[in-house]
Amino acid sequence: MHDVIIIGAGPAGLSTAFWCDELGLDTLVLEQAEEVGGQLHRLYNPINNYLGLKARNGAELLERFAADLDSAEFDLWTQTNITSVDLKAKRVSLASGEKLQSIAIVIATGVRPRELGVPGEKEFSGKGMIESGTRDRELFAGQDVCVVGGGDAAVENALLLAEVCPTVTLVHRGKKLRARPEFTQQLQSTHCITVFTESVLTRIMGDDHVEAVEIQRKQGLKPFQLAVRGVLIRIGVEPNTGLFREQLETDERGYVVVNSQQETSVPMVFAAGDISNPVAPTISSATGAGATAAKVIASRLSTK
Ligand SMILES: Cc1cc2nc3c(=O)[nH]c(=O)nc-3n(C[C@H](O)[C@H](O)[C@H](O)COP(=O)(O)OP(=O)(O)OC[C@H]3O[C@@H](n4cnc5c(N)ncnc54)[C@H](O)[C@@H]3O)c2cc1C
User: Fold this and answer.
1) Euclidean distance between the first and final Cα of the chain, in Å?
2) Residues 98-111, buried b or exposed e (16+ Cβ, 10 A)?
3) pTM, 2 dp
4) What's the CA gap between 286 and 184, in Å, rounded?
5) Rounded to whole angstroms, what are the CA distances from 250 to 49, 254, 256, 265?
6) Among 198, 229, 199, which residue's Cα sits nearest to residue 213?
7) Where are the alpha helices (DSSP H) in the chain?
8) Any idea what DSSP says for residue 115?
9) What are phi and psi of 195, to 5 degrees?
């Protein structure tokens, strides 16, 4: 029996665990990945917006987090496959057959990139699918590429790739790009970028590596093929709520609804970080929400 089980070890889960430890709670963190850190592993840009410290990228920030967590005494299990969670009973079942019990649960499972769901997307992973403009652009220098999406992340990546690629084709299904004016203005003056709005990428093709994409411009028109060597998809994120979505209140997109104390609709079940923050997800808000959840849990347990 633990005081607290935290599901997910990104910035929110780690901060919750750090605070729970400070407050003397018996804490177990369950992480499905090999390593802790969550989205910090996909963050290749400099982090200049975390008050008090700067880092060259997510990996460096994670090193700093890890140094602070070195002396903490909470239990952390990585590569943990949770098969079911009974939120009301606070019972977590693992693929190993183990059943874990706690007084409180904190959901900190974050978000994952939304997939397009088109043929070729999974098959060409590592063979022409670009994960990040910052990280991969030298790999794709001198090659024609395609970017899918119309928000900040898509346009920013298109601009980064345009610095080294002869052509960048940006495909967006909406009528207008959603990216901030600073990016769209820059886009207009970047001549090697072609923008197709009201268009969808329907297929990624090639042999051993991406060689072309199929694009459908407007409903009803015949798709056409475009030769490219790289494809980057940035069409938003989805909350990781699969395990418990039916058991608590979520919004229409599946994000967990919480109050100002990070409480969910189930007593003694809390949520922190991106999983409960569709509006302004950041590392600061994730670590802050984790601190709030831990403090509220500690005060509830002290009055039991
Ligand atoms: C490219 C990029 C750039 C960014 N730049 C910035 C920036 O400059 N500044 C900033 O403040 N923020 C930035 N962010 C956002 C920031 O990374 C997130 O807001 C932050 O990581 C959220 O932390 P989290 O712990 O809520 O979720 P996550 O980081 O998503 O961590 C969730 C963890 O839960 C685990 N998990 C999920 N499901 C399960 C399960 N069923 N069982 C066990 N574990 C599970 C995951 O494996 C993961 O480790 C950026 C994000 C990206 C992708």
Assistant:
1) 16
2) eebebbbbbbbbbb
3) 0.92
4) 29
5) 29, 5, 4, 9
6) 229
7) 11-22, 58-69, 133-136, 152-162, 181-188, 283-302
8) P
9) -110, 125
| φ, ψ at 168 (rounded to 5°) | -130, 125
- Summarised one tens digit per residue, pLDDT across range 75-130 is 999 999 999 999 999 999 999 999 999 999 999 999 999 999 999 999 999 999 99
Residue 70: predicted pLDDT: 87
Give the residue, out of 35, 43, 87, with the most ligand 1 atoms within 8 A of its beta carbon, to mutate for a pocket test.
43
Taking CB atoms and a 6 Å cutoff, what residues make up the pocket around ligand 1? 7-13, 30-33, 38-40, 42-43, 45, 47, 49, 82, 108-111, 240, 243, 273-275, 281-284, 286
Q: Whose CA is nearest to atom 12 of ligand 1?
A: 282
Helix (H/G/I), strand (E/B), else coil: 136: helix
Ligand 1 centre to CA of 111 (Å) is 6
Q: Which atom of ligand 1 is nearest to the CA of 58?
A: 17
For 161, residues 6+ apart whose C-beta sits below 8 A from its C-beta are 130, 133, 137, 140, 145, 147, 168, 230, 232
Task: Report the separation in Å between the CA atom of 301 and the middle of ligand 1, taken as the mean of its atom positions.
Answer: 28
Q: Ligand 1 mean position to 43 CA, how many Å? A: 9
Identify whether the C-beta of residue 47 lies closer than 8 Å to the C-beta of residue 69.
no
Expressed in angstroms and rounded, the spacing between residue 216 Cα and the centre of ligand 1 is: 32
Percentage with pLDDT > 90 across the chain: 92
pLDDT above 70 (res 304): no
- Tens of pLDDT, residues 44-87: 889 999 999 999 999 999 999 999 888 889 999 999 999 999 99
- Nearest ligand 1 atom to alpha carbon 284: 11
Q: Is the pLDDT of residue 170 over 90?
A: yes
CA of 40 to the centre of ligand 1 (A): 6
